[in-house]
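Quick one:
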Amino acid sequence: MVAKKTALDKDLKWQRRMDAGIGETASLSAKLGLSLVFLLACSAFVAFHMGGLPRSGFLIAAAVIGGYMALNIGANDVANNVGPAVGSRALTMLGALLVAAVFEAAGAILAGGEVVSTIKNGIIDPGQMPDAQTFIWVMMAALLAAALWLNLATYLGAPVSTTHSIVGGVMGAGMAAVGTHAVNWSNMGAIAASWVISPVLGGVIAAGFLAFIKFKILYAPDRVAAARKWVPLLVSIMVSAFTMYLMMKGIKKIWKADTFTIILIGIAAFVLTLWPVRKAVFRASANMTGRRKEIASLFRLPLIVSAALLSFAHGSNDVANAIGPLAAIVSGVDQGQIVTSAPIPIWVMVIGALGISAGLILFGPKLIKTVGSKITKLDPIRAYTVALSAALTVIVASAFGLPVSSTHIAVGAVFGVGFLRETLSHRRRLHDTPMLIGDGTELSAQKQDIEALRQMDPTLAERAERKLQKRLLVRRRYALTIATAWIVTVPAGAFLGAVLFFTIRGMML
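Output:
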């Protein structure tokens, strides 16, 4: 018999909720305070070192906006790199934050490049700009628009593409400045295509590798023997893929290798890795009994390494989303002319690197949890396929000249893994004994049976459908939220960019 809750019990429950809410509010206030300190430090540094330059007010404002954008990149985009590792418990949240912060900053500073494109993806034609002043206003509006949209997306728990955010901001501000004819619409079409290509390709590759692992290892009569045969091959494929991925995305600004060289080095990485990994797997599996958790543990170290390498490559590439427009503003103020590629002052690079790391540590856990555990349940095996898909999808897409987004790839891979699990789970139940529903009535949980039952007894069909929903291994509401955010990212960034351009121009005139 369940004891009835007293008024005191209800009061205590209410008090616990109040305490939890107060704690969350205090924590958020502290994070916002630290973010404000970082932005004030950015403005103080620029004011102290460049206060004597003409129009230094633009530089101070641009440094603050660039720092704000970097914070939001860290809060939103980095989750895709470490979320699967955290969700699978290969890394703790603290460990993931430290690994990602260090490697993001290292990638930005060491491999971010000395020169950066100031107009992302060639979205607008700089020749259409009437003067350098208008160009500076466009860059400031675009940068702030992208940062505001990323901030909102993070608050809503939706991982979105930072590249698409800044593209939308540049497009909207550019159209507001000179009209729609300044936009390169063919490039915009390619970006729209990536909304579909990236998640589908990422999901298919991740699901394909997970299916291979399930049928070749987890469903094998002798799991340990199967693991000894296939895990070294799978890990070597990952090493090869990440070697090529880093050459294409991580260090391309330090050394831009041709396609043949990249392939050759990728093959060499596979060959050199296979034998050492085989020996390591044999040692690690010596006392294994074949439990799934034991097999999964063989993927833990590769998964941690992949999280670090993904963070390094992300830092070297996506820092440009914050420092590209900032470098454009600095060069525009310094040279008094429009620039399409600009040298990066070290202080600009440091703002971008530190901002991404700070945003990750302060606000990143929310999106890390979404990617790592809220969409579908991950373990080291599933997370391995997500990480491998992130590298392979970029390689495959580059080979065919297809536009892709790293954010969409990673999230698409998580959904691909979840839907494969769901499909295999439902197929296994086809031959199961029908389940009992409440009053003892037997009913299969398949959708077609529920629809047939609905014609006879709608109430019973509704109860069966609720039970079926509990068996779904992918949370649909996250799919809807994320897909909606992806679709509206460019239009939302464009709208904000246009509004902010008119606002900035009105304040300056």
